[in-house]
What does this fold into?
Amino acid sequence: MTESSPARAAHAPAVLDLAHLHGSLSDPALLSMNLLNEVSDHYPDAVSFAPGRPDPGGFAIEDVHRYLRIWTEHVTEAEPRGAEAARNRLYQYGRTKGVIQDLVARNLAVDENIHADPESILVTVGCQEAMLLVLRALRADDRDVLLATDPAYVGITGAARLVDLPVVPVDSGTTGIDLDDLAAKVREARAAGLRPRACYLVPDFANPTGLSLDVPTRHRLLDLAAELDILLIEDNPYGFFGDGAPPRPTLKSLDTGRRVVYLGSYAKTALPGARIGYVVADQPVVRGGESVGTLADELSKIKSMITVNTPPVAQAVIGGKLLDCDFALREANRDATARYGKRLRHLLDGLAARFPATSPVAWNRPDGGFFLVVTVPFVADDDLLAYSAKRHKVIWTPMHHFYTAGGGLRQLRLSCSSLTPEEIDLGLDRFASLVTDLLERT
Amino acid sequence: MTESSPARAAHAPAVLDLAHLHGSLSDPALLSMNLLNEVSDHYPDAVSFAPGRPDPGGFAIEDVHRYLRIWTEHVTEAEPRGAEAARNRLYQYGRTKGVIQDLVARNLAVDENIHADPESILVTVGCQEAMLLVLRALRADDRDVLLATDPAYVGITGAARLVDLPVVPVDSGTTGIDLDDLAAKVREARAAGLRPRACYLVPDFANPTGLSLDVPTRHRLLDLAAELDILLIEDNPYGFFGDGAPPRPTLKSLDTGRRVVYLGSYAKTALPGARIGYVVADQPVVRGGESVGTLADELSKIKSMITVNTPPVAQAVIGGKLLDCDFALREANRDATARYGKRLRHLLDGLAARFPATSPVAWNRPDGGFFLVVTVPFVADDDLLAYSAKRHKVIWTPMHHFYTAGGGLRQLRLSCSSLTPEEIDLGLDRFASLVTDLLERT
It folds into this structure.
């Protein structure tokens, strides 16, 4: 051992080799998330159809103060120890499950016809933490696998990678999920000695496809999940944003067998900067045949080692927002929903105006949400994206990032949730010139 | 596949068996965290020496509003786009690394003589997320192990368990870490084909022991880490709270070789309810011999799959607090530090008054922090804790929870950070009656 001395020699720097860090750090899913988050920053002059960002509308920082005051007042009036309770709840560490589960439960009853015991709800740091908690709990050993509709949100693929849980892709088909493929994949996995634990999907206006399951498919999926004995992980960030058609029931509201773990988010519907999501996990858990509580209780144990608590300050802001709209958040989002619908129609009309039926460019027509998928007659990869951003000043998302097992090379995702109609027009003009440029080359 | 029909049959509930969930859920470390967090709630009449909670002092909810306004004003003045920049930063998803790293860096320079590039700092949801990120990155495969001083904070043991990273205990000795044991453990692990990656420790007023490394030991530890080629993970939640003696330099401030990954927290020094921690990870990372950035960049990729962002609302509150005290947070904590010191001395004096030198009860004498350890002539386990809480109305923490490889059965931890001198006296009277009760039985 070296002796201590007054004049210290400098040490050579510690260098870490990526080959000796966790494999997820070399995984396409994690690299995609960074690329997708940062591409718009690199080309500030480009019109970006990339981020699925909510539009701030009339948001003002003063709203944060107002929500916080509404929540403070509510706790002060509702609790026996009044103002002291509000102060302690905001100041101190609280229960790992959260401090606003009762308010979330009331919101779910009003907006989604989901009637959840607040004790089965865990408030999380964004929906992303909820995904990680559920996947960490379900991944017991090397045999476990997750099913996920393909293409899928990179956040679920990345979370699965972080807990070393392989993802088995299930064809999205044209209705959001191909049930025959789901059944076949579960059976194949079991035949190979694996344990398919759950199927992840976004039933409403999925990211990246924009697809939604129709109601009969929802019922059939629930029946099939019971038959196959797998859980369904329902992720619902965009359900409010239907363009005209009446809302479809969530899987969780139809779930009579506690098959559905429901992931919710207030990022798109209340305030992204609060980073408040939640999970409803009412599945009973047993040990040696005896009940030990619910999956929510187990997720709470895991959360105590990840973030301990979701910041009470951020929970209080969302709690105030829910109180402010009397738990009818869907109604409070009516203007935003109309705005998103108008933009989506503007995008669809703009595509039709620029690419006639004879054009080799095609796209799907979601009836809501933030996303649609365009198919092009050339490879739309990251290199082309860089070229498009630089030369044509328009940014979009290569679909191949969302495919678990390859595919999507001639597809791209467009989002217009945070673009004005004028920006959409400008962006589409530039996109059309990119297409012309590429078609002239081939 | 079942056909959809108008009248739906109810499904039998999905039941999960704990045996098929992740092993961490049956691990003592995760069960401890819950037990320790909840025991005080079960016995509201008891005096609790259990939680290492900061004292709210004169905190008022209005402070949260004030900090938020200070931060808003700062961004509005500092950024070219002014008020719009502040609004966007608070509203939108931001960079995964955070929105206040520059403020954290200034605070570290003022308070700790640590001069970190803001790009090497990642703002996290409490220090717990920082631990998880670092351990996830370092655990590449089955050969990797973490070293940690024993006994250790359950948060590090639990985070290691979540990423399936075994913990090799290193004796804390009487000075916080036994360097000979550290060297021996690293060599033994290597001889067994394992890869010891880092050693975790709390050099100042450790939880649970209250021990601090003296300055020569700090230098020797840095030399030894370089010699052994391992990282040091320095966790520093209590460093401000020395009782009189001048602050000792952090390992990071002495680190000339980028050996130290520094974990910081504003939970004890600013506002627990904001849940803001951070990690300084300036280690260079290479791939195939070429630089690809720093460990902070890699941690950011992992964070993008755990929480995506630390809530900007919570970051802004802490940013405002840092601006408010002109980055001199240690000075801003002077009154709190004096209060904690007075309580610790009151606890030490109270123990001495109740247990004379001839008593079989002994304790250590930390010179700051929130904790001390009492050794008793009987087994102080969870059963005795329940008995103590019920019969004698006093709560403490069994030390065995903090030992990785067993031990501490006749030790208990006392914390008095959130107790008044009167509560400490009452609690110690009750604790003395518990000791008398137990000694009469044996």
In short: Chain B has 15 helices and 16 strands. The first strand of chain B starts at residue 16 and ends at 17. Chain B touches chain A through 112 residues (CB under 8 Å). The domain at 62-331 of chain B is CATH 3.40.640.10 (Aspartate Aminotransferase; domain 2).
